[in-house]
Recover the amino acids of this structure.
């Protein structure tokens, strides 16, 4: 649903904001864009998930959306890094500081912000809050920005099944949560359906909650991928944020295929050394979700409630940047057929393994 309201948020001194944010986590960048009248929004604010900006994946996609909003809507923006091992109270303070400073919308990048968004939104009712990858926060001023990750992951499973030469492929999840299990479920189902059960999937998670290192430490992803490669896997799909870079490195070094996640990782500069071995990526329109929420606030019609992006809306997709992937005619045919079958309802993609 969409709620129409006149945007009015409290202002605060820039120095006060800097002090508050430095106290509750990491570093930040700030750009105020065009001048604003008293009482108007200073722009869009992002509070990053584990791994922070530079993960070449989930957080970077959110940053791309913020930058697009700043450039096209001529608004300001601020992004703030998390701190290692921080508590929910730290997240609450971060969101409230951004709201108090006049940013609107304020977006928590990741499901770990659910409790913090709920608390901050209750206190700052004239500010629109967004949370990515969680739909449990129900409030008139909150937009739950969610995706059908399992559908894109199903396509990745089809691609992996049609590409493997060893009949063994891998899945690496950063942290064993319901969200990451959606990636696992779709991938495993896609592999099974495309191969008639002939291809084996080796699945594992790097860490268990409350340990979220599986989203932030590339060495964990690299070690897990190496183990799967040693066991015969020749295509590995990782849904592990920054840790996924280690998985990509391991697969590329071994001359095998990696499948990226969230952003088109073939096109990420930090992964250029390994790009020829990034078969494809399961992309999520996180950047568009951030941009659309910022625009809705500027237009005076803030998005609220559950805002879902799926395969039919191009909210999730399979990247085609690698020329080697697009030249695989049989793989492309199988992927396109799977897209049609999901869109028609012939294929129902599972959300749990």
């Amino acid at each position: 649903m969409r709620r129409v309201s006149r945007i009015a948020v409290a202002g605060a001194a820039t120095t006060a904001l800097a002090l508050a944010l430095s106290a509750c986590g990491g570093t930040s960048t700030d750009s105020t864009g065009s001048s604003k009248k008293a009482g108007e929004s200073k722009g869009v604010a992002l509070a990053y998930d584990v791994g922070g900006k530079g993960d070449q994946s989930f957080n970077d996609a959110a940053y791309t959306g913020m930058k697009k909003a700043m450039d096209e809507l001529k608004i300001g923006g601020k992004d703030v890094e998390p701190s290692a091992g921080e508590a929910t109270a730290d997240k609450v303070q971060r969101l409230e500081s951004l709201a108090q400073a006049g940013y609107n919308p304020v977006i928590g990048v990741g499901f770990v912000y659910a409790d913090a968004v709920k608390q901050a939104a209750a206190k700052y009712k004239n500010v629109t809050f967004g949370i990515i990858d969680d739909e449990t926060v129900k409030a008139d001023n909150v937009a739950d920005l969610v995706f059908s990750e399992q559908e894109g992951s199903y396509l990745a499973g089809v691609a992996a099944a049609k590409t493997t030469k060893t009949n063994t492929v891998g899945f690496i999840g950063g942290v064993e949560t319901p969200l990451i299990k959606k990636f696992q479920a779709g991938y495993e189902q896609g592999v099974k359906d495309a191969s008639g059960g002939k291809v084996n999937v080796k699945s594992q998670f790097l860490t268990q909650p409350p340990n979220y290192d599986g989203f932030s430490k590339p060495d964990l992803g690299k070690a897990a991928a190496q183990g799967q490669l040693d066991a015969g896997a020749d295509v590995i799909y990782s849904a592990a944020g920054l840790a996924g870079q280690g998985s990509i490195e391991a697969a590329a070094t071994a001359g095998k295929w990696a499948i990226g996640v969230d952003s088109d990782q073939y096109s990420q500069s930090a992964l250029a050394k390994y790009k020829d071995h990034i078969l494809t990526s399961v992309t999520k329109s996180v950047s568009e979700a951030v941009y659309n929420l910022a625009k809705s606030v500027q237009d005076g019609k803030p998005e609220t409630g559950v805002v879902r992006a799926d395969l039919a809306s191009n909210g999730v997709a399979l990247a085609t940047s690698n020329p080697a992937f697009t030249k695989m005619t049989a793989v492309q045919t199988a992927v396109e057929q799977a897209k049609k079958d999901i869109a028609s309802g012939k294929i129902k993609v599972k959300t749990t393994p």
